[in-house]
Queue: 3 jobs
Job 1
Amino acid sequence: MASLRRYAIASLIVWLVILVILIPQIIELDKRLEYSEEAFIPKESESFKGLIILLSLNYTVGDYILVVFSPNDLETSKRVEDTVRIVLQDLNLNGNILGPYTIYATIRGYIIGNITYKVNQSIVYYNLLVKMGEEARRSYIWLLDALNKTYGLAYAYLNLYIQAKSMGVEDPAEYAYLNLSTRLSGDLAILFYLFQNNFKKAIETLEPREAAREAMLETIKLVNIDLYNVLTQFRLEDYTNSTRVTEYIYNVSRAQYYNMTFDNFKILVDNPRDGAFSVVSERLRVIDMCLVDVLRESIKNGDIKSLVESYCSSLLDKLALYPNVIPDDLRIMLISNSYAILYVSLRESVDVILASQIIKSLDDMLKSNVREAYYYGTIPFYYDLSEKTVREIRRIDVTTAVLVIILLVALIGSLAAPLVILLATGMALAVGLGLLSIASLYIDVYYLSRALMIPVIFGITVDYSVFYLFRVVEERSKGYSWDDAVYQAWRRAGRALMLGGIATVLGFSAYVLTPLESLRGIGLALTIASATGFLSSYTLLPALLLILGENRVFWPYKSLRLPGARQAIILKSIAAHSLKIRGLIVLATIVVILGLLLYLTSVQPSANVYLSMTGDSRYVEASRVLFTNFPVEVFSKVYIITRDYNIDYLVERLRGEGLVKDINIEKRGEYTVITSGLPVDPLDDRVFNIVESIRNTARELGTEIYLTGFPTLRIDAVSSILDTYFTYTLPLAIVLILLYLIISMGSLLVPLRLLVTVVFSATTSLALTTIVFYNIIGGDIYGSFIRSPIYWITPIVVLGLIITLGMDYDIFLTSRIREEYEKTRDDKYSIIEAVEKTGVVITVCGLILAGAFSSLLLTQIAALRQVGFAIALSILIDTFIVRPVIVPAIMAILGKYNWWPGRGLIRRWD
């Protein structure tokens, strides 16, 4: 006996050491789980290949968040965008931000830049005009001086000549010359001398005025040919006319090249700077008077951009009127009557912890800046799933524990024994979660796996423990001491536990052997759950019973009472009656299985992810706001990638059939990318038909395409998982379990019969679950279309759990039938006796396991409610119909062939 206790203490120490080692891993579990179904996309799928092409073409297809906020005014948009930038900066994240204010500011900046450019151009023009005016002014002064020295001299000479002639002077030309020459000196004296000579020649043929002009021209021609060319443009009558002089300069200058009028040029010559400002202002004044002020001020300091914003606010308000200034195609995806949207796309992927930090930071900073704020996209999706799932799991933990305690106390009649069982269960749960956390470092584990582990571990550990505990009591009633009774129960009932435990582990291991990582993650979680639950009840519970002793285990009683005789007699009577009508029962079983299978194959499960979220999900609320106030095609995008250059017909077909909206075509490298909006919610089940239609249309046209994007990635992930499960994983699980049971039991027909009864439980529970949730409960689907309220993962999980867990009670019963058969060799007697001896114990186990899974009914996640309802219903069917009615009937028909061909491993365990 001392050796047994030493083994017990050693077993407890091992469990405690393992638990201490795994505590840090348990803490890290939540952030290691995978919350996106897209993480499980098959690498060979069309959508995944298309995603790789998009990434190679520098498309941004990563984690994103849409902030939907109200009010939708410009100031609020600016505050929201500033807040998001601060959050990204604080978390060292790189991303692109697109919102109403960003676009407005960009367009306003473009307008300011355009105005600034015009003012800049005006300043360039102003400076050019100033330079031109200064040059014209110098030319004007030079020309006046030149005219005065030439035509002015000629004009004075002509007046003296006419005067002398009227006075009768003999030589009037000489008279004029002598009167003027005394006043001249230098070059001008020489010029006048030459002029005198030329005048004497010209006067012979020309009248005096023309002679004077011609004489001066001839004189200048000899001295300065350029001046000669200028003087030819004037006459003696207008050489002093300033307007005529300005006109000449205007005609020979570049003023006309710049479309400058003579009046403006005249102002420019009078005062180059004022004239230039007047000319440029006249042009700017046509646009807006504020530009004249900007021009005036910018001439002084040159800070044009700030001057434009300061002086042209009214002009900017007219040109950049919010929100009308935003182009229609952008406005429709950014602003509605009540809400506006900010798009934030990150360049890196985020995990659940980082997603939680982003959302919580936004909440903290936005609560005082906006009236309403909703978050949509992959980041809030991950956050919502993790946050609400953790909350629901805590509720499941507490609820399951409370239900199990209540059921254990009510069914066992002891206060301490349930606590001992729960201690073993808690240890199994903690170790299981720790092992799952380590496994999730190497394989993606879907977040629902953790929620499913809890009732599985509770169910297996509690069921096996209760079954074992009652066997201890039975052995104790035979006169064994407490320690011997614990050992004998472990030895005799242990083979049933071993059979069930290994079969359960094998069944779930089929998931781990599947080619899809998503199923491997779920299978790994359930395999760990079943293994830790079985090992806890097989090793830890016996150790606790030995260490605590009988009095402590059954406190406040001295021992546990054996199952009630009355209930056992009722079950025995039911089993005996089923043997009499065994043919009818078997026929009815087959008919029910075939009928329900036909019904189930006609019901398509839903892939609407809203069914996997809570009713109070903020993501769901954001979806409702988003799709109520904005066109759905803006957010439901697919990418059609093709090398076919003749895609016009494809686009016309897709548009004509109403499959896509809001089409944008872009050529990048060797590919053409068609970005299309779908007319339905991207999580809507109608997406399946639309995507399939797009693919079929492309195939009809012989176009090689890759269809990708969030909706198609989900479709390929879900379709691949369902196909693989029903064509590979489920058959493999059945084969592994059957092979193991055949080898272990040494029987071919008992495992096959077991499969039939499990299929009966599975089809019945799934069909009833579908009917209840489809026709009675329905379900809040948040306005999004679903094919049925049965979530796609429900049949996968339910079938896996029923096939593995559902066989336990059958194995418990079958093992006892075999044990009784080995004593009596009487088939009918063995069946009835086994039902009587195990009936109440298995009923208690069934009620406890059903209660454990019933805790899922209290969650707000529809998918988990369906799983909990189906599993609990299946266990109750198995407990109250299959075990006492169908199993005895089939085994009675098979008779001695139940144990054909011979011995198996089960005898070796004895």
Job 2
Amino acid sequence: MSPVRSAGIAALVSLLSACGGTIRSTAARDSGPAGGEGCSRDSDCPLGQACVDGVCGAPKMESAADAGFFCTRDGDCPAGNVCLKSQGECLEVKSEDAGAQPADAGAAEECAEGQAVSCGQSKLGECRLGTSSCVLDSGAWRYGACVGAVGPVPESCDGKDNDCDGLADEGLPDLTCGIGSCQRTQPGCANGAVASCAMGSPSAETCDGLDNDCNGTADDGILPLTCGTGACARSAVACSNGQPQACVMGQPQPESCNSIDDDCDGQVDEDLGSASCGAGACARTVSVCLGGASQSCVPGQPSAEGCNGLDDDCDGQTDEGLGTLSCGVGTCARTVAACSAGVLQSCAPGQPAAESCNGLDDDCDGQADEGLGTTSCGVGACARTVANCSFGKVQTCVPGSPATEVCNGADDDCDGQVDEGLGQLSCGQGICQRTVSACVFGVPQTCVPGASSAESCNGLDDDCDGQTDEGCNCLDGQVRSCYTGPNGTVGVGVCKAGSQSCTTGNWSACSGQVVPAAESCNGKDDDCDGQTDEALGSTSCGVGACRRTVANCVGGVAQTCTAGSPATEVCDGADNDCDGQTDEGLGTLSCGTGACARTVQACVGGVAQSCTAGSPSAEVCDGADNDCDAQTDEGLGTLSCGTGACAKTVQACVGGVAQSCTAGAPSTEVCDGADNDCDAQTDEGLGTLSCGTGACAKTVQACVGGVSQSCTPGTASAESCNGTDDDCDGTVDDGVCGPAATCPADQTVNPNTTVSLNSSASSPVGRAISCSWSVVSRPATSNGNFTAPNSCTSAKYFADVVGVHTLRFTVTDSMGLSSSCEVDITVNALGDLWVELTWDQNNDMDLHLQHPSAGNSHNSNGWASAAKPYDCYWSNKTPSWDAPGTADDPSLDRDDITGKGPENIRINVPSTSHDYTIGVHMYSYAASPKTVSSTVKVYCGNTLMTTRSRGFKKDKEMWVVGTVKFGASGTCTFTFDGYTFNLP
């Protein structure tokens, strides 16, 4: 028997026995008891028996290896095996047996005639075995078809083992119902009947990755986490993948103009400064940011400039353009600004003066440079006359330029003559020759020759043939100029021409001429070279500064040389005293004293010298003036030794010899004002005298100023808190001295701000103290609370709603004495519209603000998700409404789902084109049976406009509080509504 088959059957027997079932052993044939011969294989035997030695009986466990596999399906078997379900055993399928079926699949087997065997798959459950008889088949005896066998069918819910695997109603689909944590799965068949499924009950959703409320979504409905303020505000998923999350606020940024709290300090657009524009009366200054919008500075309108000390026309100038006032003429003219320093002015003319040529009206008669006369110059056509002064400039008369003289009766060449130099007209020869002026009285003339005669030696061309005295050297009585000196010298210097006369037709010798001679000192040009008394030399005399040189001839007069007069010698490199020596006898300069003494020549090389004393050195004991102060061995001090009565002092240097000091001998100290024991202390060691207690205690020195003292106690006073026993009874601050409390300064903050309360507390006498913060007064709707209210230094207070929160800090000491101080925390509303909601029971209520575009405020379609984006509420905290930008957009700054508020909605710059509707919704009524009292406050520009209250006892109820309307002038009006309806 196969160990695997044996183990499988044994396991099945064990399983059926455990379930209370029995296995009946049926022989393979109808004859013979169980255990007799009747089988040839295990399949001939009933389920649970094996064919052992041809007899069906209990399986034989041959070895420990028989404890193998028990299967109900192929998947229960190892690789390479299939499950023979009728036997519950795994059979190996070899590669050459691919496609083979198990033995009980009806395969034919050789047999002997008359033999019959059990056949079929199983007798378990609804299955039954049949009989296969041995028949002749193709010449061989083989078992034939299985007759009467009932095979397995798919399991159905009827309490029966339809698939004959020993199990009833197994493998049927389970029933599943519900979702999330409510989901349940159970057998689809129970006790042979189809079962029904009952799902679990839902519970509140928690962050655990499960669908606790059984709505198909895990961890849904868990409200997001919010943290931070302004631009740092963040909303985070409270739960992710079943794990609680944390909210991390954003990082603050520098504040910018955007209606956002960029630096996350609870204030919007703060500290952005201002802008100025315009000048004078037009000057304006505006905040650079208003309502989240950058502002432009618009100058005021200029007006006409008036005399008032103001820049009315806004051009940066004051009282300009108001003109001037003028009076007087000429130099008396005066012009003043019509306005000066905002005061109207008057004009006074200056004083006239005598007229002078300066282009000015000096005499203030309206004319400049008048009455100063004229000057004439030139003759003829060159004659000119000019005013002595023109345009303030003294004039010079310049004659006109002469022109060539022409025959016109005028003096064209400006020489004082008219028509001169125009020459003559000549005609004829000899004595026939006639010459007439070319112009007479401005009229051109003509020439007519004379009559001729016989020629004679008379210097005339008597026969008018063009030759004169032909045959004569000259004409008798003729005189002519003559000169025999060098060419070019005649008419130069003293040289001049002589003359010759004609006698009997011949010229005489030249007489009266002067020709060049040697130059002499006579003021004349003797050598006719154009120079007078030249090259006659010079003569020198005297020495040093007295030396003189003169020309031998000056102005035609012979000169003599006279030496200069000597002067006192000075340091200039010259021989001033004319003795042949330079800078002599000027002496020396001395400076300095002692070792610093110096002497130098007063003048060297014509340069005056200065004397520089030597550098002093430290005085030493040597009999010399080392530090050059005219004293010897001075300032070397003294030598002191000993103290008190032993003190001695001697000069450190005497006569250039260093000295030494020897102290006196000490004695016992006594109260006499002296240092008797020579220890540098006076009257020391003589002790003190004490008397009295507390503030009356006194201690005095036994000796003061050499006088022995006595002790007198002080005077007692009433006890006060000063750490002193004022009444001198031995107890300090008895019955007085309570603790001190110091509060922080008052603060002004935005709503929902946690304020640090930095206080201090002390006991001046060191007693133990305790501290506490409490509320004195605050807005009735406030739910503000303290953090560390018993801290003496660093408590915090959550200032929630708008109004003044007065807080008290109390310090109590161990004696029960206490003191208090108070601080006011003023909470201001933000924006021009601030709507605030609070309620008195822990509950989830929601504040709504509706834009008119949302629709009917008395209908659920006008609110919440049905009205997005025109309802600002917890699910739509910062919608964008109306104009671009965020200035006119609402913001739900806080949504309180578990407490008492506050919740608020703000708009920095509300629209004036429509109104806004305020609503309060009871999101979930969790305070039953208590009434939840809610309060709505509406602020316009930090001014409380209205307070409205209402009680809620109904889930999902919506209260339409009223409408707010802003006017163009900045006015704000509230209209109450009060309508209620159900908002799911």
Job 3
Amino acid sequence: MMTDILPGEPQPLVVSEMYCEYAVNPLGLDIARPRFSWVLASRRRNRRQSAYRICVSTSRENLRRDHGDKFDSGKVFSAQSVNVPYDGLMLSSGERCYWKVRCWDADGVAGPWSEPATFEMGLVQPGDWRGVWIGADPDVSAPLLRTEFSVPGNIRRARVYISGLGCYELYLNGGRVGDHVLDPASTDYDKRILYATYDVTEYLREGTNAIGVMLGAGFYCQPSEPDLTDVVHAYGDSPRLLMQMNIQSVDGDVLRVKTDETWRVSPGPILFNSVVGGEVYDARREQPGWAAAGFDDSRWSPAVVKESPGGVMESQLLPAIKVNRTLTPVSLAQPSPGKFVYDLGQCFGGWARLHVKGPRGTKITIQYGEYLEPGGLIDKRPYPGSQETNTYILKGEGEEIHEPRFTYHPVRYVQVEGHPGEPRLGDLEGRVVYSDVDLFGTFECSNPLLNRIHQNVEWTLTNQSFGLPLDCLHREKCAPLDPASVGGALYTRKHMPRFWTKWLRDIRLARKDGVLPDAAPSYRNLYPGGPHVCYLPLVWYVYQCYGDRRVLEEHYDGMKAWTDYLTSQAEDHLLVLGGLELCSDHMLPGKSPGEEEFMSSETPGAIIFTGCYYRNALLLGRIAEVLGRTRDAQNYANLAKKIADAFNREWFNEEKRRYVPESQTADLFPLALGIVPKGFEEDVIHHVVESIVREHDGHLHTGTIGTTAMVETLATNGLADVMFRAATVTSYPGWGYMVDQGATTIWESWGRFQPKNPRWRADSMMMWATIDRFLYNDLAGIAGPGFFGPDGVTPGFERFDIRPRIPEELHHAGASIRTVRGVISSRWRKDFSNRHSLILDVTVPVNSTASIHLPKLGGENCTVEESGTVIWKDHAFLDIAPGILAGREEPRTVVIEVGSGTYRFVISEDTHENPGDEA
């Protein structure tokens, strides 16, 4: 039996973090059986939970007395610490519950109770909504709505449940409530509508109170501007509001303030607003105090009762969009008389906040862009008409501060025209806006260029996170189901379960008779989407990362319907589908920057479609197996095999020992899928290396699908040095080239500009962000789920691999990620002063185990020490270190099985050979 590395008595398991539906103390749950998760901490190694007990109570006092009057699980013998479902008395609307958990370790020692946590229900039943939808006449762009109400003393708590379509700002007694912007997150409004819940107890006072709401168009009633946007599906003709405030007194009485025809409405200072077209704001039309009690609204009109948008009301559980950072400009120039251009130094999504003084009626135009003309002005060619333009008209009352409310822009440069004086550098700030997702996670290595590439990926992720994974910050403010873009976002290894589960529901609801659109929500109304849409791989990825079985259950019918639709379109298990080549290997590099092929002429779309069809069938069979649907599991496994066989019959040439037509993507994609005929894998890999190293001088020659496949494939096949070179080369094409050209994000195209294309490329897109998988998964070695390929983890990272693949040119690398079980980290450095040794520091969360793959550094034999103790020597495992469970030898690695804890391994090679690749 292992002994503890720490002296003294055994320490019990301590609950360090608690979550309900992946959130801390959430408000507004509308899930009948919410799920609990917790993270455990211990100073000892190899710690696992053997049992738990959850108590849920209606009061802190009951919880303190261990009285779970809503739910007491009793002692449950299970290691499950992720997504444990509530199984108590029915939860009612607005009910606030207190919960705690304690855990037992493998020796049966009980840990202490956790600190209390809470969750609170929203409006659970449709009948709980008492208000009606209200708004203004359709010609009012952004109406103001208000009402006053009286509140008795002795308030216990007050909650507002609100949805304003397309967007809203909420005010109580003159003060802004919350910090959400562009709220609620967009959906298919005729299917579901998100509402937010706010604790407004501290905003209210005894006596008369006032509530006010400003509405904007958002995607709900996006103005019809075909020259400005790809969005063609507007849901309603004008903004509308549904709101309810429940005020509970200490004696239990509930006062409800709700939207109805007694509210008053008026046009506001926003004359025009469009998600793409910008805003026109006339400060002269402001009405000071309009959201405060006592305001004279006698000239306002009665609110107009509006038709319901039709969708089911659903609580917005994903992190809200917020202003998360404020940037200071790095420079200010005047390239033309009266035209001032600020450089924020970074491409981001959001807007500018302008401080200005001037005469009443002065009209200032604020334009946004990602790049400049040679003369220094913003290049407007990508932004026709009023796109990415705001207008502000001064009221002339001292310093005025303006920032838009119901639009957002791609920002690097901000051009100000019509300024009444000469602006200063500090008069403008950049407001960085994105969904407030958990961005915990690090990557750092000895190569500054890779560090910069990683930083660019992180900026790109935030730029695409606006309640859904955007295609880009202008032109296509929608969420395509493109596998490369989604894979790029997933490969950043950020802990975003609420973001992804929200968007998966958007995808499920966007189906029409089993057919998926090209983007969800389906604002572009394009059906069917390409056969390569990423629905099934995303569901499987979420299940693996978060151990979320419910996501499999919720989407099973939709995934099956989509796969069966593809089967109906296949001929002899191949998806040829002429006319859909525009959905294949996107943005293949050309001979020089700007000559990219929009869709590859080298790799037929049928290869991509059929490969994705195979991936869908394979995953559906695995999902069916998890859910106990035995017949489906067998049927779809058989279907996957037939598709793979047909794929290889059609495109694999045994004589050439590779796929035809001959392209990097044609070879890499089946390698990533794992369908290369047995015995030919090395040959296919050889052709890939020949193409990259010799034909293209170390450069990739792949579009979006091939690049994603390459990132999943090269290092895992012993080619970390080849992948490292392709990532860091600073000549065209590649990520290093983007950085060398001044990129602060990941571009849409390998070449920034395409002069022959009337729709210039965006400076921020997720397609090439797939490179982060190489950084986290291969260089740092924290192995996660694959997107195209078979790599996986035990759901929720209960069991995973640490497998660093070490290029010769790199001297150290490390990363950390957050999982549902806690933080995983892996950091290594070469130590040439000690006979070519390698030092690897690893942290494994409590309730997880890991296989640590230690490279032999090019030799046949090595010695491994852990925290100063030799655990492997002369090809043999020495069972003498705490937390070390087992060891075995593979051709190029020594694999050490470990329990939870923090470890330091030192690998010393009995040779003077230089470190090389590790497979």
